[in-house]
Amino acid sequence: MSQTAPARERTLIVTGAGNGLGAAIARAAAAAGWRVGVLDQDAQAAQAVASSLALGAVALQADISDERSVQEALDRFAQETSVAAPDGLVCNAGIVRFGPLLDADVADFRAVVDVNLTGTFITARAVARRMIAARQAGSIVTVTSMNGVAPGPNSGAYGPSKAAVALLTQQMALEWGPHGIRANAIAPGLINAGMSEPIYADHEIRARRESSVPLRRLGTAEEVAAATLFLLSDDASYVSGTELVVDGGVTMSVIASLPRPQSVDSVGDNFSAAASATEPGKPGTSRER
Ligand SMILES: NC(=O)c1ccc[n+]([C@@H]2O[C@H](COP(=O)([O-])OP(=O)(O)OC[C@H]3O[C@@H](n4cnc5c(N)ncnc54)[C@H](O)[C@@H]3O)[C@@H](O)[C@H]2O)c1
Description:
289 residues, alpha/beta, binds nicotinamide-adenine-dinucleotide, 7 strands, single chain
């Protein structure tokens, strides 16, 4: 008879999981066998998502920018699950305030930094302290943005806050790595979910944006969730301090959108023609110029 002990149930807290990407991450994690703490400042939203998940998901109401509120939520999760520290944390909650920098309201600027950067720090540190006290390895994933990789117009503190979260994540990896804690960031691109959904209700904007992506489409919340699950999982056991850009290639494609002389654009035409000529069932074509 096998003496192997059953694998311990793994636990995970996802912030901002009452909607959008966080809810998709919570769903994917529950489907992969994690017991999930669905944390959101909106108690009803957290409850609705938690109730839709299997495996005893726990709804946690908390404001991530308020240290006491976060500690109370972590205490509650520990009581519900009987584990001192979760095995994983996804710092996903974030906000944006649009408007040109010249007119940006200082209170709005501060609010974005407070939630996106300080809230991520508060939550990640509180969980890391518990992991370390329990002598338990863990994985933390932060959610940044393509706007933290390259600036977007009229998004105030959003991009700068996300760039800072990327560096904060590396700092976590550096300082907490010796305790067995991995820290990585996910940088979503053009995703048709959550805070971006209203943008894509405009069909013309949507079509123009899709055509700028090398993969020629928007991403889904489920695709962001799959990448997040990879970073949380043991498959990424030696991955720490990295930022995984999940954007269909759009962030790196800026040079492709610049105007080019025809002499440069025609380079490679011979190869394209030869390739299509050898494609099965497709006659070779030569492009008129
Ligand atoms: N949707 C996108 O296209 C996209 C692209 C790049 C990055 N992101 C990032 O992904 C994350 C999730 O975005 P989303 O589109 O799902 O947003 P969303 O607005 O749909 O959901 C965010 C959730 O976070 C919660 N929240 C906000 N402030 C909070 C706080 N102080 N404490 C606790 N919960 C709080 C909200 O109640 C909400 O349920 C954000 O960090 C965002 O910056 C989103």
